[in-house]
Structures are given as C-alpha cells and as structure tokens.
Amino acid sequence: MQEFHAERARTLLNNAEEIFDGAAVQAAVRQVADKLNARFDRLDNAAFPLVLGVMGGAVVFTGNLLPQLRFPLEFDYIHVSRYGDDDQGGNVVWKVIPRPSVAGRIIIVLDDILDEGETLAQVKQRLLDMGAAEVVIAVFADKALKRSKPVKADIVGLSIPNKFVVGFGMDVYGYWRNLPGLWAIRPEDLKQR
Ligand SMILES: O=P(O)(O)OC[C@H]1O[C@H](OP(=O)(O)OP(=O)(O)O)[C@H](O)[C@@H]1O
Ligand code: HPA
Q: Where is the Phosphoribosyltransferase domain (predicted)?
C-alpha cells in the first residue's frame, strides 16, 4: 500500500509543472512579513495580535513566516478541512475550533491558499461571531478565479493561476506538502476537472 502511494505521488510530480521555485516562494513570504511588520511593528505595542494558523495547509507558510515577524504576538492554530483527500472542495469541517480568548483581539489568520474562499469566509465569520475585534487575513497564495469570492485576503504573497497546485504546505490527495516550490498538477491527473 505504501508503495502504491509513493509511486502515485512521484507520477503526479513527474507530470506537474513548477510555476514558482523555492526562491520565488521565499521572496513572497518575505513580502508578507514586510507588510505585517509595517502594520504591527509599532512601539506602543497596542495591537498584540493573536496569529492563527489554519491547519494543516498553513503549517509550512506559518513556520517560515513567524520567525520573520518582529512584533510581539501570540500564536495558536485552528484546524479546518474542506478538500480532505479530494481535489474539489466540499463542506467546511471544523476539527479544532478557535479558543474563546479570541474575543476582543486583533486576529491575524494565516493560510496557504485562498481558492474559492469558502474556508476563510467561514473562519472569518466564526471569529467575528466569537467577538474578535478585527480579522486580518494573510494568505501565501491567492488563486485567480473568474468569479468573485465570498472573502478577500488583506495580504497576499503570490497571485497564482487557476490551476490545482501542490507544495509549500499544499497537497493533492495528501501528497507533496513538503515541496519548497509551487507545482501545478497536470489537469488530466486530477479526479475532477
Ligand atoms: O478557498 P477554499 O476553496 O475554501 O480552499 C482553501 C482551503 O483549502 C485548503 O485546505 P484543505 O481543506 O485542503 O485542508 P488542508 O489545510 O488540510 O490541506 C487550504 O489549506 C485552505 O484552507
Ligand atoms: O490548488 C490547491 N491545491 C491544494 N490545496 C488546495 N485547496 C484549495 N485549493 C487548493
């Protein structure tokens, strides 16, 4: 069974196209850090935001970004899933919900990708419903779709084409979250296209 997965993962990557290499990815993370630092690195420390990583896809973005933030912050995570092991989104499933202590705080939500926007729309609404003072959304990648999205990101690392991508935390069928660059899966290799 493990051999099947390893072989399938390799075939998917062999057919994929690298659309941003590791250096471009790191430059994008730096830009996100610069924008957050410009906004929150203030001597009065008035904000003291709570940074929430949306697991599991945000794990790599979060791990690369946090050490580049220069202002005092708290970190926590939530866990939300809409794609599971599929390449098309379904219902948003909450696996770890926000703690009640989000009330009254400025929250910086970090996620790997804003695709159709359903996940982050629900995340933002839930945080506001719980009394968050402000929700700032920073995504590593914003996918260009021809239709409008139910939520906008305040800060975007990379604008990417409308392709199913893997790498830097993003997966296809559970594979290739570990790639340092961003790769577009060949459409013929997707279950739903
Ligand atoms: O904008 P949307 O169309 O809602 O898609 C974006 C969401 O999809 C991915 O999560 P996924 O459900 O794949 O779970 P994962 O984080 O474990 O990969 C990604 O991490 C985003 O949270
Ligand atoms: O293009 C994508 N790749 C991986 N995960 C995703 N979740 C939403 N869109 C994507």
A: 16-171
104 φ/ψ sector (left φ>0, alpha ψ -120 to 50, else beta): left
Q: Give the single-character DSSP code of 49.
A: P
For 30-33, the CB contacts below 8 A with 24+ separation are: 30/68, 31/157, 32/65, 32/138, 32/140, 32/155, 32/156, 32/157, 33/65, 33/68, 33/69
Ligand 1: centre distance to CA 42 (Å): 32
Ligand 1 atom with the smallest distance to the CA of 118 is 4
Range of the domain at 145: 2-189
Number of domains comprising the chain: 1
Residue 115, domain CATH = 3.40.50.2020
> 137 C-alpha vs ligand 1 centroid, how far in Å?
14
- Given pLDDT bands bounded at 50, 70 and 90, which one contains residue 43? confident
Q: What is the pTM of this model?
A: 0.97
- Does ligand 2 lie within 6 Å of residue 113's CB atom? yes
The residues assigned a catalytic role are 115
Gap between the Cα atoms of 78 and 71, Å rounded: 21
